[in-house]
Amino acid sequence: MSAVDPPPTGPSDARPAVPDPLAAEVLAGNRRAIARAITLIESRRADHRERAAALLEQVRKAGRQALRIGLSGTPGVGKSTFIETFGLMLTGKGLKVAVLAVDPSSARSGGSILGDKTRMERLSRDPNAFIRPSPSQTQLGGVARRTREAVSLCEAAGFDVVLIETVGVGQSETMVADMTDLFLLLMAPAGGDELQGVKRGIMEIADIILVNKADGDLKPAATRTCADYAGALRLLRKRPQDPDGFPKAMMVSAVEATGLETAWDEMQTLAAWRRDTGVFEARRADQARHWFEEEVRQGLLARLTGDAAARAELERLGRDVAQGHAAPSAAARDMLEWLGTDRPAPPEELPEAGE
């Protein structure tokens, strides 16, 4: 992976007054520059965060948009195979495709395999495609901490479609809906039943359910599963952002590349309807506001953990909870009250005798 360009130095350069040269390269669609820019926005260093914010503001002014598609599904359902086949179909139509894949991080070591480029070997060699795997780290919801910003960079670079592949851990992966225009749920044959219709969460936000592996001996099972999910979707309340017939269930085969053209036509139909009715822009505006508020929350949390006095109080109350001297809710209330009070500065330590 290419290293991030050296950050600006000196207090007066904290917010660059001149355009970042990396911005011009990203806008020109330079894939190495895009990779460096994503590395920059994923960095936790304060100087990198300052430069990343300035870079994102510069590329935002280009006003470019892509169709953002989220994709989730349980491990082994064939997400990588589907994305490669689907991505090659799109590039074959002359479209530029970016794939942002999120790999789960180890709870012990924090590391990730990041093997998506290996699993999508043909697509990774396509000049009209860009694949970037990122670790989920401690982020919940199936996406990485800076996936939303990586999407913005890919849009600025001129990609027509941005595919976001989530970790794939199940019902909790709803955060991807807050950064995409369409959400696809990939399912395996013999994996559906009518009870799925009353589950809330990932089924509720899916725009299209794709039953993969509809080929060979699995095709009859895929047909039954697709019918089961179609019935389950009818039990859900119709959403105002959907035209008649959506959400829907369809069959595809990533191995045989069947059903993909029809699925793409349905995606375009849904996206066009949302654009024509104003749902598309309203949804993006809501998403922008959501991520603004999320960034504020994360910033406040960072300040909390970065303040020595706050950390000490947090540690003290945490010990009380761990030892059974206080309930978690009561300790949390005390911490919030402590944060809301005017606290005197900690007294300076007096020098010991003889110093």
Highlighted features:
Rossmann fold; alpha/beta; 7-stranded parallel β-sheet; 11% strand; 355 residues; Single alpha-helices involved in coiled-coils or other helix-helix interfaces
Q: Helices, strands, pairings?
A:
Elements: H1 21-27, H2 31-42, H3 46-60, E1 67-72, H4 79-92, E2 97-103, H5 116-119, H6 121-124, E3 129-135, H7 147-156, E4 161-165, E5 182-187, H8 202-205, E6 208-211, H9 219-234, E7 248-251, H10 260-276, H11 279-306, H12 308-322, H13 328-339
Parallel strand pairs: 1-4, 1-5, 2-3, 2-4, 5-6, 6-7
As for the number of domains, it is: 3
The count of β-strands is 7
Biggest sheet architecture: 7 strands, parallel
The average pLDDT is 82
Second rung of CATH, namely the architecture of the largest domain:
3-Layer(aba) Sandwich
Unreliable sequence segments: 6-16, 105-115, 138-142, 193-198, 347-355
Total of DSSP H or I helical runs spanning 4+ residues:
13
The top-level CATH class of the largest domain is: Alpha Beta
β content, as a range? Answer: 5-15%
Structural class: alpha/beta
Rg, nearest Å: 24 Å
CATH-defined superfamily of the largest domain: P-loop containing nucleotide triphosphate hydrolases
Morphology call? globular
Strand order of the largest sheet: 3-2-4-1-5-6-7
- How far the N terminus sits from the C terminus, by CA atoms, comes to 52 Å
Helix content: 40-55%
Order of helices and strands: HHHEHEHHEHEEHEHEHHHH
Indicate the CATH topology of the largest domain: Rossmann fold
